[in-house]
């Protein structure tokens, strides 16, 4: 990391593991769960959030001295809404099918708690470069969980990854299906997202005892 | 009338904000440690959803939809004749909806503080939280994408989804109060177990799915099964008695 000082690198790396927005800070769960039935929408969502949070943090950080604190929530919402409209229009233009699939959840990036949380906790008190790193770091931490959940749900639920049949064909019984493997259709249903995230939290906290909560 | 009843129950149980779409999960997880605070936040969500969904419905109908601006020169009845028929402002819906919500939340806070200090004290701290609750914006966006037809239905939709959210948060708060006395594995304590319980509750709520179809699609297979099971049982009983008879002989 020659480009970044040690302190700056920490801003990006911490949210990936020990300060993860989803599993530790409990932010931004709404959209994380609803769109992870497959890998592709999960990745698109992660990239959208990286874009919105990275740029948004910089904008808020640049304006931090001129925003009156009483109306700062509305100002922040307008900044996010503008960025989300850009993402939404780009998706509609270049990936229409996908934007239909994500339906309202692109719009819901506006109220994604990670974004407001990072604006409040970081961008309002730090310079633009550090805010940018913090934004990208947290969005990456969010993206990692999304991709992991999407990976397991698509693999176990429909036996595909990005739509490719990696485990063989369930109808003609090739690959794993030849020896009696069956897809777990339950993984595709929404409730399983919650349980998969619960298991991720379980694994993470078993490995790092410092994160265990008091009762 | 029937469509109102249908929408009401559908929004509470089948399309429950929390269990079917995971909206408002952040505050759902953060404020569900005690039943009393959960009730406060739930009530505030019902209130704000009931106000903002119809309001955004009017914005959608008269400003945002393609051709919605036709009323500007009095051609609402025959939009295709209007000079404004080609205007499509729907890309602005996010920004208008969120602005409405943020303003309404602020307004509601001021009004409640002025006229009902006791209600303000119980809701007060939750109101600012609500502006960034996904369930509120989600309500408006679903209202738009499902093309709800009348203002009355929009009001109904806002109110009943609020009730669904209220039910969910009060239920999980009650469970979390009890689970404190249970021996949960240490790494799962707190957040982890809450996720898994919510998942199980969501599976339970999925069973409401057949409520409005009257079980039509599921009926034939269900009707067929008990008879078969009954037959098998009878058969097995017969064979058992036969075996018993053989043994006794």
UniProtKB/TrEMBL annotation, chain A:
Its primary localisation, in coarse terms, equals membrane
Q: Write out the annotated subcellular location.
A: Cell membrane; Endomembrane system
Q: Which residues cross the membrane?
A: 43-62, 74-96, 102-119, 131-152, 185-203
Role noted for this protein: NQR complex catalyzes the reduction of ubiquinone-1 to ubiquinol by two successive reactions, coupled with the transport of Na(+) ions from the cytoplasm to the periplasm. NqrA to NqrE are probably involved in the second step, the conversion of ubisemiquinone to ubiquinol.
Record's bilayer topology term: Multi-pass membrane protein
Cross-referenced PANTHER family? ELECTRON TRANSPORT COMPLEX PROTEIN RNFE (PTHR30586), NA(+)-TRANSLOCATING NADH-QUINONE REDUCTASE SUBUNIT D (PTHR30586:SF1)
> Which InterPro entries does this UniProt record tie to the protein?
NqrD (IPR011292), NqrDE/RnfAE (IPR003667)
Q: Per the database entry, which stretches of residues form a coiled coil? A: none
Has UniProt tagged this entry with the keyword Calcium? no
The record's GO molecular-function terms, alphabetically, read:
oxidoreductase activity, acting on NAD(P)H, quinone or similar compound as acceptor
Q: How does it assemble?
A: Composed of six subunits; NqrA, NqrB, NqrC, NqrD, NqrE and NqrF.
Tell me the keywords, alphabetical order: Cell inner membrane, Cell membrane, Ion transport, Membrane, NAD, Sodium, Sodium transport, Translocase, Transmembrane, Transmembrane helix, Transport, Ubiquinone
Cite a GO CC annotation. Answer: plasma membrane
GO BP annotations of the record are: sodium ion transport
| EC number(s) reported in the record | 7.2.1.1
Q: What reactions does this protein catalyze?
A: a ubiquinone + n Na(+)(in) + NADH + H(+) = a ubiquinol + n Na(+)(out) + NAD(+)
**What organism does the record attribute this protein to?**
Patiriisocius marinus
Family listed: Belongs to the NqrDE/RnfAE family.
- What lineage does UniProt assign to this protein's organism? Bacteria, Pseudomonadati, Bacteroidota, Flavobacteriia, Flavobacteriales
- This one is known as Na(+)-translocating NADH-quinone reductase subunit D
TrEMBL record, chain B:
Q: Could you tell me the membrane topology recorded for this protein?
A: Multi-pass membrane protein
Q: What is its EC number?
A: 7.2.1.1
**Which keywords fit this entry according to its UniProt record?**
Cell inner membrane, Cell membrane, Ion transport, Membrane, NAD, Sodium, Sodium transport, Translocase, Transmembrane, Transmembrane helix, Transport, Ubiquinone
Q: Which reaction does it catalyse?
A: a ubiquinone + n Na(+)(in) + NADH + H(+) = a ubiquinol + n Na(+)(out) + NAD(+)
| One Gene Ontology term from the biological process aspect of the record | respiratory electron transport chain
Highest taxon of the lineage: Bacteria
Q: Which family does it belong to?
A: Belongs to the NqrDE/RnfAE family.
Q: Which HAMAP family match?
A: NqrE
Explain the purpose of this protein: NQR complex catalyzes the reduction of ubiquinone-1 to ubiquinol by two successive reactions, coupled with the transport of Na(+) ions from the cytoplasm to the periplasm. NqrA to NqrE are probably involved in the second step, the conversion of ubisemiquinone to ubiquinol.
Assembly and partners? Composed of six subunits; NqrA, NqrB, NqrC, NqrD, NqrE and NqrF.
This chain belongs to which protein, by name?
Na(+)-translocating NADH-quinone reductase subunit E
Q: Which organism is it from?
A: Patiriisocius marinus
Q: What is the lineage of its organism?
A: Bacteria, Pseudomonadati, Bacteroidota, Flavobacteriia, Flavobacteriales
């Amino acid at each position: 990391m020659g480009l970044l000082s040690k302190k700056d690198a920490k801003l990006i790396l911490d949210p990936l593991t020990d300060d993860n927005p989803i599993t530790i800070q409990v932010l931004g769960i709404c959209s994380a769960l609803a769109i992870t039935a497959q890998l592709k929408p999960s990745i698109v969502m992660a990239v959208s959030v990286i874009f919105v949070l990275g740029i948004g943090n910089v904008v808020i950080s640049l304006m931090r001295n001129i925003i009156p604190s009483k109306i700062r929530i509305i100002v922040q919402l307008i900044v996010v809404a503008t960025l989300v409209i850009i993402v939404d229009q780009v998706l509609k233009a270049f990936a229409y099918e996908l934007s239909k699939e994500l339906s309202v959840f692109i719009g819901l990036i506006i109220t994604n708690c990670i974004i407001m949380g990072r604006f409040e906790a970081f961008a309002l008190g730090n310079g633009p470069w550090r805010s940018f790193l913090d934004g990208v770091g947290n969005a990456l931490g969010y993206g990692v969980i999304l991709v992991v959940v999407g990976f397991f749900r698509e693999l176990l639920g429909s036996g595909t990854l990005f739509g490719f049949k990696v485990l063989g064909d369930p109808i003609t019984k090739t690959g794993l299906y030849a020896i009696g493997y069956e897809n777990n259709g339950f993984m595709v249903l929404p409730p399983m997202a919650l349980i998969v995230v619960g298991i991720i939290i379980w694994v993470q906290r078993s490995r790092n005892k410092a994160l265990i909560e008091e009762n | 009338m029937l469509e109102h009843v249908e929408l009401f129950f559908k929004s509470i149980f089948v399309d429950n904000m929390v269990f079917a779409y995971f909206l408002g999960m952040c505050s759902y997880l953060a404020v569900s440690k005690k039943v009393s605070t959960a009730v406060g936040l739930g009530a505030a969500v019902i209130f704000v959803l009931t106000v903002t969904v119809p309001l955004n419905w009017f914005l959608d109908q008269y400003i945002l939809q393609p051709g919605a601006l036709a009323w500007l020169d009095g051609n609402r009845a025959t939009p295709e004749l209007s000079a404004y028929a080609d205007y499509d402002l729907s890309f602005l819906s996010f920004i208008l909806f969120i602005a409405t919500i943020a303003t309404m939340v602020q307004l509601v806070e001021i009004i409640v503080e002025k006229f009902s200090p006791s209600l303000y004290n119980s809701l007060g701290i939750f109101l600012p939280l609500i502006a960034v609750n996904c369930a509120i914006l989600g309500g408006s966006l679903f209202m738009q994408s499902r093309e709800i037809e009348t203002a009355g239905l929009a009001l109904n939709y806002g109110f009943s989804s609020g009730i669904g959210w209220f039910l969910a948060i009060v239920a999980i708060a009650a469970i979390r109060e009890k689970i404190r006395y249970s021996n949960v594995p240490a790494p799962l304590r707190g957040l982890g177990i809450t996720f898994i319980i919510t998942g199980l509750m969501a599976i339970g709520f999925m069973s409401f799915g057949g409520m409005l179809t009257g079980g039509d699609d599921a009926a034939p297979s269900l009707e067929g099964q008990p008879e078969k099971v009954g037959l098998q049982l009878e058969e097995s009983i017969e064979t058992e008695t036969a075996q018993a008879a053989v043994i006794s002989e």
